[in-house]
Amino acid sequence: MNSAAEAVEANINGGKAKAELPLGKMILLGIMAGAFIALGGAASNVAVHDIANVGVARLVAGTIFPVGLMLIVLVGGELFTGNCLITMAVMEGKTTLGKMCRNLVVVYFSNLVGALIVDALIFFSGQLNYTAGALGAYSIKVAYGKATIAPAAAVTSGILCNVLVCLAILAAAAARDVAGKVWAIFFPILAFVVCGFEHCVANMFYIPIGMMAATNPAYVAKAEELYGMTAEQCASITVLQSLQNFIPVTIGNIIGGAVCIGMMCFLIYRKDWNKKAGA
């Protein structure tokens, strides 16, 4: 395996390349990454929607959801949360803050497009009919919980989430073969899912699919039957309401990735601590 310092150096060089991607390629890679994360979310929803025990459900989801990041690392894709690590390339002087911000904005909305494509495909595929509509009801419940999260909880949960996601990316860079990269990704992502932390790109799947499910009266009725949700609660999952999740979670993800991991790793592995001030 590569050392932690070597993984950080590779990520810095990769961050420079990411910041300088042509716009069209950046958009396509962002769409692909958003779709991969959404597919991981869709698969984990199917696996856990009929499991009553929360701990068991999260453990099962955590074993499936990492496939999204694995596909991004192994096949390709630009993921907003992982790209917060470009801050290391900025601190190294290999790219600029402006180019980093350009990448993050373009990739964020490209991830959204990719996730929404999968949302629509899942909805119209009829998959939400599983277990007599219980998967549709579960999707509504998850979306409602995320859309009504307290802002402070969303920020702090977002920080914790992207600490683990960015550690997974750096750990994958430390591995030299495919098997090593898979396992390096698996455990940190498993941990974030089990803990229930908030990931803005994953929520680009979870919240819209719940909004779509809430347009189906059968799923709404099933949500009332299984979870005691009212029709008014289901209808309250709107684009405007979803911003209560997306804005603070995105802020938290940026802090967790760019500051807690990116800046910290740069200071540990790239700063010259022996250099005298003013030298």
How is this fold's topology laid out?
Layout: H1 4-19, H2 23-48, H3 54-64, H4 67-75, H5 80-83, H6 87-92, H7 97-125, H8 130-147, H9 151-174, H10 178-195, H11 200-213, H12 217-227, H13 231-235, H14 239-269
Explain this structure to me?
It contains 14 helices and no strands. The relative contact order is 0.18. The protein is mostly helical and 279 residues long. The chain has one domain (4-269): Up-down Bundle (Glycerol uptake facilitator protein). The model has no long low-confidence stretch (mean pLDDT 96). The protein is elongated.
What would a concise description of this structure say?
This protein is mostly helical.
Task: Assess the beta-strand content as a share of residues.
Answer: under 5%
Classify the fold: give the CATH topology: Glycerol uptake facilitator protein
Largest sheet: none
Number of DSSP-assigned strands: 0
What portion of residues is helical? over 70%
Oligomer: single chain
CATH C-level class: Mainly Alpha
Count helical runs: 14
CATH superfamily: Glycerol uptake facilitator protein
Radius of gyration: 19 Å
Shape, principal axes of CA atoms: elongated
Please tell me the CATH architecture by its name: Up-down Bundle
The secondary-structure element order is HHHHHHHHHHHHHH
Q: How many domain units? A: 1
The span between the termini is 35 Å
Structural class designation = mainly alpha
Report the average pLDDT across residues.
96
- List segments where confidence is low: pLDDT < 50 over at least 5 consecutive residues: none
